[in-house]
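Our preliminary data section would be incomplete without showing what the modeling component actually yields. Below, a chain of 191 amino acids is followed by its predicted structure, encoded as tokens that our downstream tools consume directly.
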Amino acid sequence: MKTRRFCELGALALIGWCAHCGPLATFRPIAALSADRPYELGLGTVAVSPRPYVDERWGQSGQLWFTKRANDWLQLSAIAAFDPGALGAGIGATAAVVRGRRVVAGVEGEAGYGWAAASVPFAFRLFEESWLYAAPRVYNFGIYPAVGTPIGLSLHIQKGAFLRFEYQASWMQLQAYNLRHHIGGGLAVQW
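Predicted structure:
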């Protein structure tokens, strides 16, 4: 009985520790996966600027994701976000509504303990398998609602390897004075 109580308290402590950690970047362009490479594993890092008029430091976080192409229009992801003080895990689903040779667009939802997000991702093919992507989103930054405008570049470097660079402006509590800049980079491998 004491062991069970100890495990329950440990699980609640872990959930509380994870409660405010969601991904601070997208890093998963809607056009990333092709029919011949339906899986992607990626790792990225993000730096987040302090808000104007607030004495705070730059923040950093990491992100790990695994994405599977379920069919022609649906991608499913497992997402983990972490920083020195927190860890969060969740899932994401991306549905491609428009798919052309040079343009892909759709809708996306994410959910995890302590975070949720909805976005409208789209991507434009630059050349070969390299894409310029964006995903305007509504999500939570800690306990507050936020709006973000991420824009990124996915560069195909060799076979199934991709470099991702991303910038995002976000407004916590939907207030201009809560503007933050997110700058990130990552590496994704597809097979």
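The chain is about 10% helix and 60% strand. The chain has a mean pLDDT of 89. Preliminary results of this kind motivate Aim 1 of the renewal.
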